[in-house]
Amino acid sequence: MIEVIQTISHMHQVADQLRNAGDRVGLVPTMGYLHEGHLSLITRALEDANQVVVSIFVNPTQFGPKEDLAAYPRDLDRDLDLIEKAGAKFAYVPEVEEVYPEGFATYVNVEGLTDNLCGISRPEHFKGVTTIVSKLFAAVKPHLAVFGQKDAQQVLVIQRMVRDLNFDVEVVVAPTVREADGVAKSSRNVYLTPEERQDAPALYRALQKGKALIEAGVRDPEEVVRTMRAMINATPYGQIDYVEAVDMDQLAPMSALSGQVLLAVAVYFGKARLIDNVWVEVPRKTPS
Ligand code: PAF
């Protein structure tokens, strides 16, 4: 039977029991409405941890004032069932008042990395993410935590936070899970109309094309981005937020593609904003 934990004090008690028993504890942080992508994170956590806690918390501080906090899809009973079937024994499901009580005033913010890509249209988003992830680390006391590559900027920001604040937590990155036509699994895919859903594979097609251009020797980021933009703009419903080819360490633009490159896109389809990315390793030029 899955154990549902709702308070921070109860979570601390369970975390201490697990650690004292010598268990290796894995955390899979989620906002619920689970899909196969989340289940793959649980499976990944169980490879390196013998006890896995899945948190379900729709975190208000990472939503902007005009975003979909109230409408965010929720189905706790179904989520608990899926978590249990995936093999995790604990679900941490705190209320908003438990996490952010009256007078809450402390935030964690990673500078620089959060200014670009999603940080432009969602300026407070990552501050909310790093704050809640810090609070989840403090409550669950995990040895490792698993995040999906689909949220590449989130992964890089959390890795930087863990490094800078010396959290004793291993950040594990799990590959993006996709539908048969390449669309990355996301809780927000439920917002798509059938027509928008037909256009959605353009994101991954554009990313694959960008990757293929780089692999064929193109080193000009503008050429790669222009081609990707044209493919997404050719769809009737997609409205580009950004299409970028940036260096993976700083998420900064590059004059020539080299080293670890992140190709990342964010596209609005009606009220849904979908993101996706691929990572490309470009051999660095060795001086002759
Ligand atoms: O990726 C998500 O679902 C959220 O950003 C996270 C990491 C659970 C924090 O709320």
Describe this entry's structure for a reader.
It contains ten helices and nine strands. With 288 residues, the protein is α/β, with parallel strands linked by helices. It folds into two domains: 172 residues, HUPs (Rossmann fold); 93 residues, Pantoate-beta-alanine ligase, C-terminal domain (Pantoate--beta-alanine Ligase, Chain: A,domain 2), CATH 3.30.1300. Helix 6 crosses helix 7 and helix 9 packs antiparallel against helix 10. The N and C termini lie far apart (63 Å). Pantoate binds next to strand 2 and helix 6.
Short overview:
By secondary structure, this protein is an alpha/beta fold.
| CATH architectural arrangement of the largest domain | 3-Layer(aba) Sandwich
**Most strands sheet:** 6 strands, parallel
Over all CA atoms, what is the radius of gyration? 19 Å
Query: What is the overall silhouette?
Result: globular
**Poorly predicted parts:** none
**How many distinct domains?**
2
User: Which fold does the CATH topology of the largest domain refer to?
Assistant: Rossmann fold
Identify every distinct bound molecule in the structure, by name, code or SMILES. Answer: pantoate
Beta percentage is: 15-25%
**β-strand number:** 9
The overall pLDDT average reads 97
CATH top level class name of the largest domain: Alpha Beta
Query: What order do the SSEs take from the amino end to the carboxyl end, as H and E?
Result: EHEHEHEHHHEHEHHHEEE
